[in-house]
Amino acid sequence: MLSFQLIPLFFAFAAPLVSAGPPLFVRKYEGCDTSKAVMDLPPNQTTLVAPATAPLFVLLGVGVQNYTCSGTTFASIGAVASLFDISCLAGTSKFASIQNTAFNVWDHVPSSVPSTAIGPLVGAPYLDGFHYFVTSPLRHGYLAQMGFHLYRVAGDLASQVFRIDTVNGQPPTSCVAGSPPISVKYTSKYYLF
Ligand SMILES: *[C@@H]1O[C@H](CO)[C@@H](O)[C@H](O)[C@H]1NC(C)=O
Ligand SMILES: *[C@@H]1O[C@H](CO)[C@@H](O)[C@H](O)[C@H]1NC(C)=O
Fold first, then answer.
1. d(Cα 50, Cα 131) in Å, to the nearest integer?
2. Where does the signal sequence lie (predicted)?
């Protein structure tokens, strides 16, 4: 199922980059013309406005959305995804549908295969970082390295991030009270401006 969900708050971080520690986010695929990476916002929404400039870069997210059973419906408790740089694919035939191609692979691999393995299988081998989102406390960030240190993306990287072309990731409509949390696989494109 292809849906067009947007991150409800497209977020802008004003905090300066923290210089200590490992790099926040390592670009491995630079210097591409992103002007062909036109971001099509869903026509039926009026909340968000696409920036007039080309994106700084575009990422393919491959990961899971996590939900807990709250009463008899699922509530989101976070997400984690590997982010592959697809900026240089803009303008190629792969670009428009890469989230579908990646989802078909991701959905069929055994559970032992990590999301980090999916990009290379669909022509997007450049793992730039990790998107890590938990709802409580609200944190939104990118992990630059394996391990679970959270680094917040700050002004240097991008001021606006749009998640569009999300495939799957939605929970079943209901759950049996007391059932354990679930992870639902998804893919998406992230446009950073
Ligand atoms: C826009 O349309 C898509 C696809 O039909 C739908 O999934 C989404 O909920 C709609 N969004 C809004 C804000 O109406
Ligand atoms: C989501 O669930 C996966 C297991 O499927 C776990 O590895 C990950 O840490 C969870 N992340 C969040 C943010 O809940």
1. 21
2. 1-20
Structure tokens at 14: 């004003």
Alpha-carbon distance of 160 to 165, in angstroms, equals 17
- The 139-143 sheet, strands edge to edge: 2-3, 161-168, 182-192, 57-70, 73-85, 127-134, 139-143
Give domain status of residue 112, yes or no: yes
Q: How many helices (H) and strands (E) does the chain have?
A: 2, 7
Domain region containing 57: 47-192
* Mean pLDDT to the nearest integer, 26-45: 80
CB 149 within 8 A of CB 141: no
- CA of residue 53 to ligand 2 center, whole Å: 34
Helix, strand, coil percent content, the chain, rounded in steps of 5 = 15, 30, 55
29 is a domain residue: no
Instruction: Please state the domain count of the chain.
Output: 1
183 pocket-lining for ligand 2 (C-beta < 6 Å): yes
Distance 147 CA to ligand 1 centre (A): 35
Question: Residue 106 and residue 169: Cα distance in Å, rounded?
Answer: 12
Chain segment 52-102, per-residue pLDDT in tens: 999 888 999 999 999 999 999 999 888 889 989 999 999 899 999 999 999
